[in-house]
Structure formats: C-alpha cells, structure tokens
Design a protein that fits this description.
The structure is a single chain. This protein has about 325 residues and is α+β, with helices and mostly antiparallel strands. It is built from seven helices and 15 strands. It has two domains: about 1-35 and about 230-330, no CATH class; about 40-230, Sandwich (Jelly Rolls), CATH 2.60.120.430. The protein has helices at about 5-15, 25-35, 250-255, 260-270, 275-290, 315-320, 325-330, and strands at about 1-5, 40-45, 55-60, 85-90, 95-105, 135-140, 145-150, 170, 175, 185-190, 200-205, 215-225, 240, 255-260, 305. The strands form four sheets. Strands 3, 5, 7, 8, 9 and 11 form a six-stranded antiparallel β-sheet that branches. Strands 2, 4, 6, 10 and 12 form a five-stranded antiparallel β-sheet that branches. It has a two-stranded antiparallel sheet with strand order 1-13. The protein starts with a strand and ends in a 6-residue tail after the last helix.
C-alpha cells in the first residue's frame, strides 16, 4: 500500500516551487484521483470501494423463503478482474427460480446496516437521470451457467404492487449462457424514467435451461456500473492505494479519506489553478460538517469514508432528509477516531 499523503505533500511542494519539481506529474495524479468515481455510478467495483452504490441486498425466490445462498462479495480467491469480485451460487435442486437484487435500501438513525426496501418506504430512491448505460462483467465457473441480469422493476412488477416503487419498469437482458471468459454486458437506458431507482442491479436463475440441472451453478460478477459523468459532485480523495491482500489494513483503508490529506490536496489544486476540482473537495468538507449522522455541532472528523463520491445531486441529498436510506449512509459514513 502506498499512502497518498506522500504524493500530496510532494504535489503541494511541487506546485509551490513550480514545474521543476514535477508539478505537472503530481497535479495530474491528484486530478486522476479526484476523478476516479466521477465518470460512473458504481454498483460494485471492489468490496467496500468508495464509489459503490445500492448497498442493501434483497433475496427473492418462488416461495420467498430465502432459498438462494447469499453472495460472497469479497471473493479474493476467485478469478477477479480487480482486487475482489462477487461469487454467486444457485442450486436448482433446492429452488427452481430465484436470485438477488442490489437495492438502494433504507437506513434508520439507529441502524448500522441498510435494510431492503421493496417499495414501501417513500423518499428512498436514487436519481440515475442522465445515465446512458448499465454495464457489468460476468463469467461462469465452468461455462454454460444460464442467468438473467436486469435492473429496476422493484415494487411495480409483481403483486402486491407497492406505493413507492421504481420509476422504471424492469429493464432486462434475455437469459444468457455464460462462458469461462470475462464478458462485458450492457443494458441500454435510453427512454427509461430512472429518476427514482430502488433496484440498481439484479440477477435471476432458474431450473429450466440449465446445462446440468442436477448440480448447483456458480458464476462471478465484477465492475457493475452506470455510465454517467458528474464532474461537479462533492467528493473526498481516498488516502491510500491498497493492494489485493488479506491484510485488515488494506480492507479497511481502501475507502478511507483523511481530512488532512484532502486539505493538502485542496491547497495543491488551488496552487495549480484547478479551482473546479478544489471546490469539489471543499464542498464535501462543508457537507460533512453539516450532515454528520450523530453530531450537529459542526465538527469535521479527521477521517471519513471517501464514499462521499456517491452524492449525485444536492437536490437528491435534500430529498433524503425525511428518512435516511442506504445511499445517504454511504455519503455520511464518517467514523469516529
């Protein structure tokens, strides 16, 4: 792991001293770090990554009996594209039809983990307006695993219909027979009303069509993301570049943003004349001061989670004031240190 603080200090010194000390290179690095989560709205890139959205999980099957195994979302031993990926399993001998939704969810002030919201809670949707495509990578363990992938449709697809459903009906690909090669799949979003989204992604498998219905299937998912540029969103820069390892530090600090590091980055960006990116950090600090989940005294904690990049629109943030949901938690996941 390499602490970004060293780069930040060098960037500041280089910016103040001029290009002779490499100001162009270090400024370019800060700009790259600043833009890391600003071109997509990620559902999943790596476990606990700062840009992840739709944090709640909702299982469904033909009996509503929790018959589909939970996904392993920290699969370091699987053939992942990045540090981690998702391992999903479906056993047609146990259940003929079922899968999982990646939900925006809800989070009450007393909760530490999001709850599934199937459309019964108001003011709990995520605004994906402007996103053009949902894309993701998938592969099978052995090849031939038949799965369908989709988004949206929560609360408006099957009875009983809910009072606060997805604003869009389900958008789905046909059932696909996966191969053992990572393949990019895309769901176009043109013409869809996605201003209020509960189900950011999902998959379903069934007994019918499986190559070997007498055996469970296993498949992998990675880099699930909506394509959308949002360069002005408030965000913190992550303080560490972590590696693929079993070390607890790498797992926890992957999403950490120290306020001191970000203050130095802000000064360096101002010195380089990049006022736009500097302002996004300053805006994130102001928002963090005003919206701590537990304190209202204007404090700014020394470390927050960099998932502040999740904030899509300030109007959307304001919409969540009535009831905190899982994505609001992602923005406000400050930790006391």
């Amino acid at each position: 792991m390499t602490k970004i603080m060293c780069v930040l200090l060098f960037a500041l010194l280089a910016t103040l001293a001029g290009p002779a000390l490499g100001g162009t290179i270090t400024t370019a690095y800060l700009q790259q770090a600043s833009d890391r989560f600003q071109h997509t709205i990620d559902v999943y890139s790596d476990a606990d990554a700062a840009g992840n959205h739709f944090a709640a999980r909702g299982e469904f099957d033909f009996r509503s009996a929790a018959l589909v195994p939970a996904m392993d979302e920290i699969s370091t031993g699987a053939p992942c594209l990045g540090i981690t990926c998702i391992t999903a399993t479906f056993d047609p001998r146990v259940v003929p039809y079922g899968g999982w939704y990646f939900l925006n969810g809800t989070l009450d002030p007393t909760q530490s983990a999001p709850s599934a919201n199937w459309g019964g809670v108001p003011n709990a949707g995520y605004d994906l307006s402007g996103a053009t495509t949902l894309q993701f990578w998938a592969r099978g363990q052995n090849g031939g695993e038949v799965v369908q992938f989709f988004a949206f449709g929560v609360g408006n697809t099957t009875a009983p219909l809910q009072p606060f459903p997805d604003s869009s009906h389900k958008a789905a690909l046909p059932f696909i027979a996966l191969t053992t090669t990572w393949t990019l799949y895309q769901i176009p979003l043109a013409g869809l009303d996605i201003h209020y989204s509960l189900g950011g992604f999902g998959w379903v498998a069934q007994l019918q069509g499986q190559t070997n219905p007498s055996q469970p299937i296993t498949f992998y998912l990675d880099n699930i993301q909506y394509i959308k540029d949002r360069p002005l969103d408030p965000r913190f820069l992550v303080s560490y570049e972590t590696i693929k390892s079993t070390d607890g530090f790498d797992k926890v600090e992957r999403n950490a943003a120290f306020v001191y590091d970000n203050a130095v980055a802000l000064i360096a960006l101002i010195g380089a004349g990049d006022l736009g990116r500097a302002r996004t950090i300053a805006d994130a600090m102001i928002y963090a001061q005003s919206n701590d989940r537990f304190f209202g005294d204007g404090r700014l904690r020394k470390k927050v989670f960099a998932c502040w990049a999740a904030c899509a629109h300030r109007a959307e943030c304001s919409m969540r004031l009535r009831r905190e949901n899982a994505e609001y938690r992602s923005m406000l996941c400050s930790v006391a240190l």
